[in-house]
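User: Sequence recovery, please. Input:
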C-alpha cells in the first residue's frame, strides 16, 4: 500500500486520509534529551527544498524547507522557522517572523497550480505537535478533495462573523466570530479581499507578522506558557488566517454531531484583544492578563 490514500465515504461524502505510516513519526516532544532533526548540524540529513540564508548544506541558515518524511499528501513540506529550538512567533524577532511568512508565500506560489495548498501550524501536544522545534507544514491536496473549512467570500454562509466587533490594522481585520467553535478563536483577514494568500504583498506580510506575534504573545500569557494551538491559512480565494487555541477537549456530542459548544463569549475575546494587543513600549500588562483576564471558561462540555 502507498504511504497514504485519499478516500471518500460513499454515504457521508466526507473525505478521509488513510496514512498508517504517520504512526511511525518520532515523538521527541516527550523525551528528556531529544535529538532534533531540525537543529543546526543536521542540514545534510534531509534533502533541502528551499532555504533563506547561506548555501545549501551549511549551518548559517535562517529558514529551511525540507520534505516531510511521513507525508499524508502528494506534496508535504516542513518549514523550519529558525535555527532556535525554543523560540516561536511570540519570541522571535519580528523580521524573522516576516521571513517565515514570506517563505509561506514562496512555497504557496511554487505549488499553487498543483492542487489546494494548505499551510498549517501545530503547537503543543494538544495541537498535534510531535517535534517541538517550531515549524509549519505545507501540503498540496488534490483538487477533487472537498475541504470542510469555511470560506470567507461575500457570497459565503459565514456572514455571521460580521455581527462581531472587529479590530483594524493598516491591512487587516481581526475578528472573533460570533459563530466561533473554539474559545478565544481569532480570525485575521485582509481588508481588501478577492485574492489568494499567494498574492500577499510585502507590506501586508509586515503587518500580518506583527499581528500574529502580538496575538500569540497575549494568548500565551492568558492560557499558560507554550499553550497548545493551531493556525491555518485558507487555501482558496478570500484567504484568511485562523488561530485556534486547543484549550478544550471535544466531547461525544461535538464529535458525533459536528456541532461545537463554545463556552467562551467571542465578544469577551475581542475585548481582551482590544485591551492588550498592540501596546506601546512595555508590552501587555502581564499581571492583569494572568489574574483578571486569565481564561476561566470550562474546558470540557
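Assistant: Recovered sequence (301 residues):
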Amino acid at each position: 500500500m502507498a504511504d497514504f490514500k485519499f478516500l471518500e465515504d460513499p454515504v457521508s461524502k466526507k473525505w478521509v486520509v488513510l496514512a498508517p505510516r504517520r504512526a511511525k513519526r518520532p515523538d521527541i516532544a516527550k523525551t528528556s534529551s531529544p535529538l532534533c532533526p531540525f537543529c543546526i548540524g543536521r542540514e545534510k540529513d534531509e534533502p533541502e527544498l528551499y532555504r533563506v540564508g547561506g548555501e545549501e548544506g551549511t549551518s548559517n541558515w535562517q529558514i529551511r524547507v525540507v520534505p516531510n518524511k511521513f507525508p499524508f499528501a502528494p506534496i508535504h513540506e516542513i518549514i523550519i522557522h529558525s535555527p532556535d529550538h525554543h523560540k516561536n512567533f511570540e519570541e522571535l524577532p519580528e523580521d524573522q517572523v516576516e521571513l517565515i511568512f514570506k517563505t509561506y508565500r514562496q512555497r504557496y506560489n511554487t505549488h499553487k497550480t498543483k492542487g489546494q495548498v494548505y499551510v498549517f501550524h501545530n503547537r503543543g501536544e494538544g495541537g498535534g505537535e510531535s517535534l517541538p522545534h517550531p515549524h509549519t507544514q505545507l501540503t498540496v491536496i488534490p483538487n477533487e478533495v472537498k475541504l470542510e473549512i469555511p470560506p470567507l467570500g461575500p457570497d459565503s454562509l459565514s456572514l455571521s462573523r460580521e455581527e462581531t466587533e472587529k479590530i483594524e490594522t493598516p491591512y487587516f481585520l481581526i475578528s472573533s466570530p460570533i459563530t466561533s467553535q473554539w474559545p478565544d478563536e481569532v480570525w485575521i483577514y485582509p481588508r481588501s479581499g478577492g485574492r489568494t494568500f499567494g498574492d500577499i504583498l510585502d507590506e501586508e506580510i509586515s503587518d500580518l507578522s506583527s499581528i500574529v506575534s502580538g496575538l500569540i504573545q497575549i494568548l500565551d500569557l492568558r492560557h499558560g506558557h507554550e499553550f497548545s494551538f493551531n493556525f491555518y491559512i485558507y487555501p482558496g480565494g478570500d484567504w484568511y488566517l485562523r488561530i485556534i487555541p486547543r484549550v478544550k477537549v471535544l466531547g461525544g456530542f461535538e464529535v458525533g454531531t459536528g456541532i461545537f459548544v463554545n463556552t467562551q463569549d467571542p465578544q469577551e475575546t475581542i475585548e481582551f484583544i482590544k485591551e492588550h494587543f498592540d501596546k506601546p513600549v512595555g508590552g501587555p500588562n502581564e499581571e492583569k492578563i494572568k489574574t483578571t483576564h486569565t481564561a476561566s471558561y470550562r474546558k470540557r462540555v
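The chain is about 20% helix and 20% strand.
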